[in-house]
Amino acid sequence: MTAPILRIENISKRYGKKDVLKGASFDVLKGDLKILIGPSGAGKSTLLQCINFLVKPDEGRIWLDEQEVHYAHKRDLCAYRQKVGMIFQDFNLFDHLTALENVRIGMVRVKGMGKAEAGERAVMELERVGLREHMQKYPAQLSGGQKQRVSIARALAMDPKVMLLDEPTSALDPELIGEVHAVIRDLGNNGMTMIMATHQIGFASSLASEIVFMEDGRILERGTPDKIFNHAENARTREFCSKITELYGERG
Amino acid sequence: MTEGWLYIQAEVYPALLKGFWVSLQLIAPSALCGLVIGVMVGVLRVYGNRPVMAAANAFVAIFRGIPLVVQLFIWYFGLPHIGIYLSPFVASILGFSLCSGAYHSEYIRGALLSIKRGQMLAAQSLGFSKIRMISSIILPQAIRRALPGCGNEIIYLIKYSSLAYMITCIELTGQGKILASNSFRYTEVFLMIGACYLVMTSVATIILGRVEEHLRIPGFERQRT
């Protein structure tokens, strides 16, 4: 068996008296697409943010490429975050920069690359997500789907080993979801390792290597899409899946 | 009539021109230093650790809370008691810069707080350190948002620069005071001085508008249709 590229163990997080995450653990192999599903408040977002330490977990350990991440050490943390791309529900593009500058700034300011070299790479990444002709536009001039694709290009430009996607299409008009899904599908086909929280289960089941069902800060059940959607063991999983299938349909 | 005209030509005009020049020399560096201080203090008030934040807040409380004239008196008449002698000109610039900086910091602070948290998360997730994140993501946006307020403060500065004559730095208002008390033509002299300040503030308003226009970015535009 190959070693997992990312290993998380017993991640827990409390806000005041509320346990948001109660010891989540899993391994991610290279090329995996792990999908987190579950009702809102289940802790999917918090888990993803804990993996990137945007939220500091109260307990738990994380290994990337068998190296434990020492997140209290600032330089280690910054180095680790460069290898773990994050895509947010509401895009979070930098409003004062064009699409091109959004993609370039991380390479220039964090990796210390030259502007010209970084610019070339940025154009390449924007081309990959189909936005070359929009690269001089500011976020306010882009549609939601385009913004999300810019944010994917921005993350990819840092050469991440793992991508975390936190409901990347849930803030989008139904018409715009497809273009973002196409980019994510393309990433998967090229072997990118991803962990994604989503309610788009049609899309999820067509791509996922594993579905993880979370509720109330715990991982209740996990397995192949077929197992989770058609032969779930846990009654709650079955109930959630049937409801969400009704809502979001089978098509991705 | 001709006598008044002569008086203006021979005495008022050269004196006011001299004063005007001194005023400009007071205002320009004070505006610049004030802005720099304001940005630094504003950043520390929002992103500093606890003691730094407390110190920055104390700075603002003091320099915004004490009348400017009193501050100028302290710099000019007070400091010699501990062996520091400042010229009236330097004492004025020091007083104006610190006071202006305290006010600017409040506009900057408000603008910093208005930047969406999501952009900071995004910067962190790309591996930005805190300092890099503030300098290349947050500040460029915050300064654009703070500009109207900071412009307001610069307009104030132009007017309160007239307090410099209280510590014998004879700028525009100071020259006017001397002229008027010699000739007792208070109305004429101070009408002219008022006009001079109006010219300065109008020019400043135009320049600030240009700067705002220059830094304008889609999504940050003023709502003007």
pLDDT average of chain B, as an integer?
Answer: 93
Structural class per helix/strand content of chain B? mainly alpha
Taken in chain order, the helices and strands of chain B follow as HHHHHHHH
Major sheet details of chain B: none
- CATH level-1 class of chain A: Alpha Beta
Quick summary of this structure?
With 252 residues, chain A is of the alpha/beta class.
What features would you describe in this structure?
The complex is a heterodimer of chains A (about 250) and B (about 220). Chain A is an alpha/beta fold. Chain A has helices at about 45-50, 75-85, 100-110, 115-130, 145-155, 175-190, 200-205, 225-230, 235-250, and strands at about 5-15, 20-30, 35, 60-65, 65-70, 85, 160-165, 195, 210-215, 220-225. Chain A has a single domain (about 5-250), classed as Rossmann fold, CATH 3.40.50.300. In chain A, strand 9 (about 210-215) and strand 10 form a beta hairpin. In chain A, helix 3 (about 100-110) packs parallel to helix 5 and helix 5 runs parallel beside helix 6. The mean pLDDT of chain A is about 90. Chain B has a single domain, classed as MetI-like fold (Orthogonal Bundle), CATH 1.10.3720.10. Chain B is about 80% helix and about 0% strand. Chain B is built from 8 helices and no strands. The chains are: A alpha/beta (about 250), B mainly alpha (about 220). The interface of A and B includes residues 79, 110, 151, 154 and 155 of A.
